[in-house]
């Protein structure tokens, strides 16, 4: 019997591959094909259609990497008997795997109307004219190279236009008119669903035996030389198997059609814009033939590109949005990384995204759709709810290396206590094709069995785009109620979440960050882009603050358009394959140039606003944009007199080495450049005895896969310290050590901070290593079971030990401007100006005792997908502060990232702050004018220390009205309590408040 089953299954598989599939299209007639090679970047349809075209027969090579070739195809519409549909079938040279990672095309009619796209899984174009009428089609064919190489992870020159080569990548195979045999196609879909279901059923299941028998009988019913006429008989044989209903207790699946289009990854932004048009055109074409089909797409940026590039296609999308069938999702500008962007950046992801959807479609997404970002910050639930959203979805945590998330439907609680209803689809993919295997997996893995019976399956080709296909829709319709399968319902995120929330009254809670146990290298890869992001966030804060202050103080015009353009550049750069460092070289060439343009524009805004505030005269002003005092200048203000820096003394020690000291601290440095002692005034030793600090360490960095994404645990054992510099030079209160290693050079300058309370480090690296990781290590004599790391609008405490598998997997973690390890709240902080990756662990031995090893990850050198990643020059700044509380760490982070600006030739001696705020733990993260251009002042405030706090805010201008709002500046909650000239605001730990002050 076993042998009969295997033989029968092989016979069915051969029937599907060799007899049924080739019979789906019949009567092919070649179209006359001509081609024109676009010499540079893509052009419009009108420009392409006017060119001279050359003959282009099947078998012609085309498409050097990233080139566009336009095809002109002419012929006539074939007569289509009943049961057949006339189509054009076009194969640009597709391979059978990796849809979205190879050649693609966008098809236009003769008058320039976009029809649909061509991809490896979607090669047909409906022909709608009468039989015998002329056909003229234009195809914008993109020679996108398969950079990923079927996941070989080999270094490739294809990601850089300068090294990608000129040899054609593809062979044009066919362009025919043909007849789609709908009966045969439907039979193929029947087989696909039942065949997939059968293989997921238990081997001894009666249902499995019945399905195998029915499929075998259907194969026997198909006459090899008359597949069309015999297909109906085969379908009748299968009908009882397809009509057997699912059990009442069957798992229920909401199938949400989407296409996860990476806004840049193994292709540049330029190509993403075209992928969006192709995918959305495919979706609109499907909606013409299936009235039940609903499609979801996130990322307002992608809709904005479509509006700019294809306004007619955008108008068709808008019509479907109005019908409720094309559903904007997510509410963000792009599907951003959530570990690395600042709190204000994540706020703007929502404000820019939601406003676009509301202004262009009149809809506000209430879900957050982030299936592929590389872990989720514990600050996100509060931001989600404050933006007016209710639900959160992710899929990426299914990639965890060692631990499985314990829930699929749950409440996610952020660091401030805010909770958001969250779903993590058990299907474990965001590119489902609704196969039997995938549906069975969704049911089998669902962890809330017994409490609820509902999950979401995101289906449609993604990453490179393409979206759902008619075959996927056929699978959905056939599994709406099918014995042995979950029940499948075509749906939208909102429909799913509303039903899931109503169905599950008391879900479990996951508290804190959702750390991805994978892709830990993304906190470090492409350091220049990470510096560009951090610097852009800082100058945006300054530009908004001083422009708003100038508008309030002098009625200067506020540069709305320029600031909006700058924000859009920064928000796009925070897409989850750009900022994390996992894209091709072309992407980084583009974004780093964009950061330079943005910085120049913002510096102009800052300079103009400061000059407007300062006037012209003989004074000098120090402008402090930080929410803390710096150089003796009050927060958010400018003054003519700053406190002089506390002098630091440099002394050469007997026996070698040096001591840097002030009235607040002393640090000893040996001839190797390493710190051997660090003490605050009258304080204890803060370095672990026998373990020098300030040591650079090189690690082998050879991930098993996903080079730019991953740091593997095995490579942590390969540390090699840079023990002896080539030179150490003593200067004016500073030491400069130079190290030459491999083919790289590193220089570190060590001095004291202007106030003499911290050790400042400036690290300059000319980096040319390959597959190595550079870290800066500080073994400190602080016994901390947890380390605090700054995240958006607060900080998170992570264990320094590895007691559990979850702790062990968290061996590299993200932090923003500072990390802190402490005993009873005080210890040592390490602040930075552009670094995000850290590992903080217990260290020591029986003789020296136990302390905490704090290491910052500076540079990597992955080979894929950008073999030139991180090569060249870099500068990093750090501040090491002994006897620091968390508040001191916060202050050091602002000092390094928002240094005061000195402006000379000023008439004023003071620019008062637009608002004053106390106590010190409540900070103003943003000061701006309202987005509705009313002239109201908007403040983003947050509690930074993790304490319940009553804060007092005093405006520096006459206020007509004050209101608390959500992130979109809409009224939310009770008005703040007035107390004299100011307002009393109660904050819970890490709470964010948005306050709108009307003038």
Automatic annotation (TrEMBL):
Keywords: Glycosidase, Hydrolase, Metal-binding. InterPro entries: Ams1-like_N, Gal_mutarotase_sf_dom, GH38_C, Glyco_hydro/deAcase_b/a-brl, Glyco_hydro_38_C, Glyco_hydro_38_cen, Glyco_hydro_38_cen_sf, Glyco_hydro_38_N. The keyword Hydrolase applies. SMART domains: Alpha-mann_mid (SM00872). GO terms for biological process: mannose metabolic process; oligosaccharide catabolic process. SUPFAM superfamilies: Families 57/38 glycoside transferase middle domain (SSF88688), Galactose mutarotase-like (SSF74650), Glycoside hydrolase/deacetylase (SSF88713). Residues 517-595 form the Glycoside hydrolase family 38 central domain. It comes from the Bacteria. It holds the Pfam family Glyco_hydro_38N. GO terms for molecular function: alpha-mannosidase activity; carbohydrate binding; metal ion binding. The keyword Hydrolase applies. Belongs to the glycosyl hydrolase 38 family. This is Glycosyl hydrolase-related protein. It comes from Arthrobacter caoxuetaonis.
């Amino acid at each position: 019997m076993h042998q009969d089953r295997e033989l029968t299954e092989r016979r069915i598989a051969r029937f599907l591959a060799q007899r049924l599939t080739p019979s789906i299209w019949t009567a092919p007639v070649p179209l006359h094909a001509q081609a024109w090679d676009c010499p540079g970047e893509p052009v419009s349809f009108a420009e392409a259609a006017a060119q001279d075209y050359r003959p282009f027969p099947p078998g012609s090579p085309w498409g050097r990497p990233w080139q566009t070739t336009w095809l002109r195809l002419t012929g006539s519409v074939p007569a289509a008997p009943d049961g057949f549909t006339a189509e054009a079938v076009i194969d640009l040279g597709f391979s059978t795997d990796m849809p979205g990672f190879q050649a693609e095309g966008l098809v236009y009619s003769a008058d320039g109307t976009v029809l649909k796209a061509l991809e490896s899984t979607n090669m047909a174009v409906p022909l709608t004219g009468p039989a015998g009428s002329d056909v003229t089609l234009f195809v914008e064919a993109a020679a996108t190279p398969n950079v990923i190489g079927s996941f070989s992870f080999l270094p490739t020159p294809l990601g850089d236009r300068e090294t990608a080569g000129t040899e054609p990548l593809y062979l044009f195979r066919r362009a025919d008119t043909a007849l789609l045999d709908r009966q045969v196609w439907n039979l193929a879909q029947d087989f696909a669903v039942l065949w997939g279901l059968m293989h997921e059923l238990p081997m001894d299941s009666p249902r499995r035996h019945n399905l195998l028998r029915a499929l075998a009988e259907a194969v026997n019913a198909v006459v090899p030389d008359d597949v069309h006429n015999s297909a109906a008989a085969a379908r009748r044989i299968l009908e009882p198997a397809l009509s057997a209903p699912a059990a009442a207790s069957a798992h229920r699946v909401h199938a949400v059609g989407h296409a996860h289009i990476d806004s840049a990854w193994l292709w540049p932004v330029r190509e993403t814009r075209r992928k969006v048009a192709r995918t959305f055109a495919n979706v609109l074409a499907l909606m013409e033939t299936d009235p039940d089909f609903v499609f979801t797409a996130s990322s307002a940026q992608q809709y904005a590109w479509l509006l700019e590039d294809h306004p007619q296609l955008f108008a068709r999308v808008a019509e479907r949005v109005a019908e409720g069938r094309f559903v904007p999702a997510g509410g963000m500008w792009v599907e951003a990384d959530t570990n690395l962007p600042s709190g204000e950046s994540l706020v703007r992801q929502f404000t820019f995204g939601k406003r676009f959807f509301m202004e262009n479609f009149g809809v506000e997404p209430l879900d957050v759709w982030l299936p592929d970002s590389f872990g989720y910050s514990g600050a996100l639930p509060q931001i989600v709810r404050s933006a007016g959203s209710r639900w959160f979805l992710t899929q990426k945590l299914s990639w965890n290396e060692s631990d499985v998330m314990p829930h699929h439907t749950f409440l996610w609680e952020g660091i401030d206590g805010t909770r958001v209803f969250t779903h993590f689809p058990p299907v474990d993919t965001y590119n489902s094709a609704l196969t039997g295997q995938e549906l069975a997996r969704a049911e089998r893995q669902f962890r809330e069995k017994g409490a609820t019976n509902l999950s979401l399956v995101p289906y449609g080709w993604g990453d490179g785009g393409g979206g759902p296909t008619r075959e996927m829709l056929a699978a959905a319709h056939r599994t709406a109620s099918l014995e042995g399968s979950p029940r499948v319902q075509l749906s939208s995120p909102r429909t799913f979440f509303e039903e899931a929330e109503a169905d599950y009254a008391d879900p479990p809670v996951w508290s804190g960050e959702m750390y991805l146990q994978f892709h830990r290298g993304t906190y470090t890869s492409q350091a220049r882009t990470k510096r560009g992001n951090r610097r852009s966030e800082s100058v945006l804060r300054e530009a908004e603050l001083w422009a708003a202050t100038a508008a309030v103080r002098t009625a200067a015009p506020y540069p709305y358009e320029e600031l909006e353009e700058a924000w859009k550049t920064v928000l796009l750069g925070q897409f989850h394959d750009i900022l994390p460092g996992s894209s091709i070289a072309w992407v980084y060439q583009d974004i780093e140039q964009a950061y330079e343009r943005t910085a120049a524009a913002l510096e102009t805004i800052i300079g103009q606003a400061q000059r407007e505030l300062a006037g012209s005269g003989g004074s000098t002003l120090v402008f402090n944009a930080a929410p803390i005092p710096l150089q003796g200048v009050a927060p958010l203000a400018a003054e003519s007199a700053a406190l002089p820096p506390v002098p630091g003394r440099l002394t050469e020690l007997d026996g070698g080495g040096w001591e840097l000291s002030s009235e607040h601290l002393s640090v000893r440095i040996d001839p190797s450049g390493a710190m051997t002692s660090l003490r605050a005034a009258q304080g204890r030793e803060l370095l672990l005895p026998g373990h020098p600090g300030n040591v650079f360490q090189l690690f082998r960095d050879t991930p098993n896969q996903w080079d730019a994404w991953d740091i593997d645990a095995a490579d942590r054992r390969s540390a090699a310290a840079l023990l002896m510099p080539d030179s150490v030079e003593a200067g004016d209160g500073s030491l400069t050590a130079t190290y030459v290693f491999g083919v790289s050079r590193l220089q570190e300058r060590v001095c004291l901070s202007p106030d003499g309370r911290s050790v400042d480090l400036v690290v300059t690296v000319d980096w040319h290593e390959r597959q190595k990781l550079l870290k800066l290590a500080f073994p400190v004599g602080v016994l901390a079971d947890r380390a605090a790391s700054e995240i958006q609008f607060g900080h998170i405490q992570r264990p320094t030990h590895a007691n559990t598998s979850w702790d062990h997997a968290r061996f590299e973690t993200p932090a923003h401007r500072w990390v802190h390890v402490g005993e009873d709240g005080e210890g040592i902080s390490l602040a930075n100006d552009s670094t995000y990756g850290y590992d903080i662990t217990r260290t020591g031995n029986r003789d020296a005792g136990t302390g905490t090893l704090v290491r910052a990850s500076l540079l990597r050198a992955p080979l894929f997908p950008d073999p030139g990643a991180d090569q060249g020059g870099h500068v990093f700044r750090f501040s090491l502060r002994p006897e620091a509380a968390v508040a001191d760490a916060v202050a050091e982070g602002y000092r390094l990232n928002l240094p005061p600006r000195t402006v000379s030739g000023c008439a004023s001696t003071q620019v008062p702050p637009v608002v004053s705020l106390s106590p010190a733990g409540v900070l103003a993260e943003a000061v701006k004018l309202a987005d509705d251009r009313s002239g109201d002042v908007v403040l983003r405030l947050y509690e930074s220390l993790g304490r319940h706090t009553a804060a007092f805010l005093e405006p520096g201008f006459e206020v007509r009205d004050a209101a608390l709002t959500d992130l979109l500046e809409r009224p939310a909650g009770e008005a703040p309590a007035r107390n004299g000239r100011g307002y009393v605001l109660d904050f819970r730990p890490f709470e964010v408040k948005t306050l709108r002050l009307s003038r």
